[in-house]
Amino acid sequence: MAGSFTCGKVIADKWEEFKKRVESGEDPKKVLDDLGLKRYCCRRMLLSHVELIDEVLKFSFPPAREEEAEEEMEYE
Fold this sequence. Notes:
It is a single chain. The chain has 76 residues and is mostly helical. It has a single domain (12-74), classed as Orthogonal Bundle (Arc Repressor Mutant, subunit A). It is built from 5 helices and no strands. The protein is elongated, with a radius of gyration of 16 Å. The mean pLDDT is 83.
């Protein structure tokens, strides 16, 4: 996620704060308002985002490097 697909506004820099505040129990509407995201296209980008990077990484290394990949993931 880098920016809104519709209007092009950069919103990637707001993801971590949004995620942290919502997980701590804040209302997503209030968080989006505080972050200055007024357009519905920007708001839906954060509301509907699903982090899949950890799942995708499992399949990104060739079989010969599978053990190395598992070791690398343990350090994170």
